[in-house]
Amino acid sequence: MKIQEADAKSLLLAQGLPVPAWDVARTAADARAAATRILADGNDKVVVKAQVLVGGRGKAGGVRLAGSADEAEAVAAAILALTIKGIPVRKVLVAPAADIAREYYLGAILDRASRRIVVMASAEGGVEIEEVARVRPEAIHRVAAHPHLGLLDWQARQLAFGIGLGGPFLRDFVSIARGLVATMVAYDADLVEVNPLAIVRESDGTGAATTERLVCLDAKITLDDSALPRHPELEALRDPDSEDPADAEARAMGIAFIHLDGSIGCMVNGAGLAMTTMDLVKRAGGEPANFLDIGGGARSDKVAAAMRLILADPKVRAILVNIFGGITRGDEVARGLIEARAVQERDVPMVVRIVGTNAEEAGRLLTEARFETAASLDEAAAKAVAAAAAVGS
Ligand code: GDP
Ligand code: MN
User: Fold this and answer.
1) What is the pTM for the complete model shown?
2) What CATH number should be reported for the domain holding residue 327?
3) For 144-173, how does the pLDDT look when each residue is reduced to its tens digit (9 = 90+)?
4) How many whole angstroms from 278 Cα to the centroid of ligand 2?
5) Is 187 a catalytic residue?
6) Terminus of the chain with fewer CB atoms < 10 Å: N or C?
C-alpha cells in the first residue's frame, strides 16, 4: 500500500526524523488559510504540493512556490485542477518553502536477493532515482543493514562519505539514515524514500545569520500489504481516492490480483497454480497481463468479479481460465463464466480449462455456451497465446 507524502512524513516524524512542518488542504481556500499562517510566522514563501501517489509531481507542475496568500490560493487551485499520470489531485500539502542549498537521495528498500534492508544514497538527488540507476548506476551507494542490529553508524558514515557529505552534516545524516531503517522495521515497509534529502538554509529569525541543516523535503513510503494486519492503525492511511479501482475491487472481493504488462489475462484458483499458469503462458510465447488467484471455493459472483478485473485492462487480448476443482466446483466456475460473458462489455477470446470436482458438468455447460475449452494446460496456454496474437494483428 502506498501512502501519501503527508502521511509518510508523519511516520518519519514519529521516528524522530527532521521533517519541516506542513498542512494539508482540500480546497484552494484552505490552502490560502494555511499559507496565511505560514507567512505570518515569518516565512517569505510557501510551497504547495499535489498529494497524489505517483512520483515526478515536480515535473508535472504539481510542486509550486508562492510568495503571498493570493498567489498560494491561485497555485493551489491550479494544482487541484491537475490530473497527474492519470490520478486527479484532490489534496495539496502546504509548507514553508525551503531554501535549498543541495539535494540528495536517500532510500531504504527491502532487498529480496540479500534478504536485508538495503539503504541507498546518491548525491544526485531531486531527480527520479530510476533514471540515475539507469544512466549512472555508480552514482548510487548502497549498504545492507544488519538484520538484528540495524544500520550501524559506520555503515551510515560510509554512505555519507560516498555522496560527499561530511563535516557538520555527518552526525545528522547518520541519524536520518538509521531512522529510515527504523521506519522500515517499525511499520513493515517495503520502501522508505526521501528524495530530496536537502541541505536547507535557515535564518535565525533576525536575518542576521543563516545556518544550514539536513531535512527530509519529500517522503515516499510503501507498506507491505501482507503485514498490514500487524498495524491496524495504518489502514486509516489508505487513500481510496488514489487507489486503482481494480485493486480496490479485488481487495473487497478477496481476490489476489496483480497487474502485469502482457496481453493474456489469467484467471486461476490457487497462488501456485496461478504462477505455473503464468510460466506456461510465457513458455507458449505469450506474456501474462496479470496474476489472479480467485481463491478456494469461489462462487459464480467471484468469477464474474475476476472477469471484470481482467477485462478492465485494455491490454488484455485473450483470457486463459485455469481451474483445478477441489473445494472449488468446476460447474460453479463455468456458470460464473457464462453469466460474466453475458454482461461483459468487451468481447475477448477465452480459453477455459477446468479439471477436478464437477469437471464433466463444467465441460457440458461450457460446450453448450460455445466456450473454447482445453484438456491440458499446455493446450490451453497455446490456444490463448494464438488467440491473442490473432487479435493483435
Ligand atoms: P516529486 O517531484 O514528486 O518527487 O516532488 P518533490 O517534493 O521531491 O519536489 C520536486 C522538486 O521540487 C524538488 O526536488 C525540489 O527541487 C523542488 N522543491 C520541493 N519542495 C521545495 C521547497 O520547499 N523549496 C524549493 N525551493 N524547492 C522545492
Ligand atoms: Mn521527490
Assistant:
1) 0.81
2) 3.40.50.261
3) 999 999 999 999 999 999 999 999 999 999
4) 34
5) no
6) C
